[in-house]
Amino acid sequence: MSIPVPAASAPLALMLALLAACTPTLDWREVRPTGSKLVALFPCKPERVTRALPLAGAEVQFELLACSADGSTWALSSADLGDPGRVAAALDELRRVRVLNLDGRETASAPFVLRGATPHPGALRFEVTGRRPDGTAVGETSVVFAQGTRVFHAAVLGAAPAAAVQNFIDGLKLPG
Q1: How many Å apart are CA 164 and CA 156, to the nearest integer?
Q2: In terms of DSSP bridges, do strands 137-147 and 124-131 run parallel, antiparallel, or are they unpaired?
Q3: Where are the beta strands (DSSP E) in the chain?
Q4: Are 107 and 122 in contact, with CB atoms under 8 Å apart?
Q5: 25-170 under CATH 2.60.40, yes or no
Q6: pLDDT over 70 percentage in the chain
Q7: What pLDDT band is residue 73 in, cutting at 50, 70 and 90?
Q8: What's the mean pLDDT in 6-10?
Q9: What are the boundaries of the signal sequence (predicted)?
Q10: Can you give the pTM of this predicted structure?
Q11: Smallest Cα–Cα separation from 72: which of 105, 44, 112?
Q12: What letter would DSSP give residue 9?
């Protein structure tokens, strides 16, 4: 004996079958930068690279966590400056370098407040439009902030959906 299936159920069954066949493009996971209390939520498994770079008048050890997913690059860099007097200059420099590296311009900027971060006027969320090395147009959403003498820069480079970018930024957590 067959059981009749209402016609309205056919589209629902098709939709459920299609959803079951899909794999998520973004596979979110928590990641902790070395030596930091920050927890970041990445949509892919980031590679971890450490190198010495100049920042705010001194060479510092930077850790970069980065991965690519859904056509965008997701990144978080951090460095301990060891001197609270250099934090303002470092946050400003991190912001200016993004504009220069993309040969672009800042199109939006707003204060960025993260619970547990050290309140600072240089803590910002900003948007940059610019060009990749091959000349194609690209956009980036970034945040810069500090906790004590450690500075952070989180960014999404590319045309990621706004909800995914917001999830990445909202996934930045500090205790406190």
Answers
A1: 9
A2: antiparallel
A3: 29-31, 40-42, 47-55, 58-69, 72-80, 105-111, 124-131, 137-147, 150-157
A4: no
A5: no
A6: 86
A7: very high
A8: 38
A9: 1-20
A10: 0.85
A11: 44
A12: H
Query: Given the structure tokens 């459920």, which residue do they identify?
Result: 16
| Backbone torsions φ then ψ of 103, nearest 5 degrees | 45, 50
Digit-coded pLDDT (tens) for 41-60: 999 999 999 999 999 999 99
Higher pLDDT, 99 or 13: 99
DSSP 2: P
DSSP three-state, residue 130: strand
> Among all chains, which residue has been given the structure tokens 């030596």?
35
- The tokens for 168 are 């990445």
Place of tokens 């973004």: 26
pLDDT surpassing 70 at residue 8? no
Q: Which residues contact 3 (CB under 8 A, 6 or more apart)?
A: none
Q: How far is the first Cα of the chain from the last one, in angstroms, to the nearest whole number? A: 63
pLDDT for 24: 52
Structure token digits, residue 173: 């957590």
